Structures are given as structure tokens and as C-alpha cells.
Amino acid sequence: MLKKIFELHGAAELSKEEQIGIKGGNAPICEENTTAKRCPRTATSPAYWICVTDPNEPCE
Fold it and tell me: Looking at the domain assignment, is residue 22 inside a domain?
């Protein structure tokens, strides 16, 4: 997809597993139309991943 957007000649398409490794390693595989979002650590909880439809929505 990015290869088509940016017209990167010679760029290799990455598999879903390779993309997950780049984006965060422990990121979940989310359902279609959702995106993995990493919520930061707080005083009471460690950092964690969630699947969201809007990446701008706050962590709960």
C-alpha cells in the first residue's frame, strides 16, 4: 500500500508479521477497520495495547 502511495521503486512489500514486528512487536492483530494503539504506563498500570477504530480516542 505505501509502495503505491509514495511510489517507492525497489521497495519490498512486508508481510503482516513483519509489519507487526516493526510497529511494536507485542501489538495485537486487530480486526478489520481497527488499529493497534499503545497506551502509556500510568502510576497504577503498565503500558498496554488496545484495538481502536479511531487512533485519536483516549486510552481508558
Answer: yes
- Residue-by-residue DSSP string for the chain: -HHHHHT-TTPPPPPHHHHHHHHTSS---PPTT-EEEEEPP-SSS--EEEEESSTTSPP-
Return phi, psi of residue 2, to 5°: -60, -35
- The whole-number pLDDT of residue 53 equals 93
Domain limits at 47?
2-52
pTM over the 0.90 mark: no
Residue 16 included in any domain: yes
